[in-house]
Design a protein that fits this description.
Number of domains: 2
Shape: elongated
Largest sheet: none
Helix content: 55-70%
Length: 77
């Protein structure tokens, strides 16, 4: 029985948090994390220097999956 109340309270808290985040986003306060990957640099390294994903990731200090995401055009920048 206590588990039901705990779950209910968790759901209420989550709803309040989502409302607060939506309100902050509408005011421009909640912008999220700054991008750490420069998509133009990733593409430049691939086209001009003919580097593979592993070499690009090592040079920029990012993960290979991030390189693949940028090259596939799915980057959020």
């Amino acid at each position: 029985m206590l588990g039901v109340f705990a779950e209910f309270e968790t759901n209420l808290r989550r709803e309040r948090q989502m409302e607060g985040i939506a309100q902050a986003k509408s005011k421009g306060v909640y912008t999220g994390r700054k991008p750490s990957i420069d998509p133009a640099e990733v593409r430049r390294l691939q086209t001009e220097e003919k580097l593979g994903a592993t070499a690009i990731a090592e040079r920029l200090g990012i993960g290979r999956a991030s390189v693949y995401r940028v090259l596939a055009g799915n980057d959020q920048s």
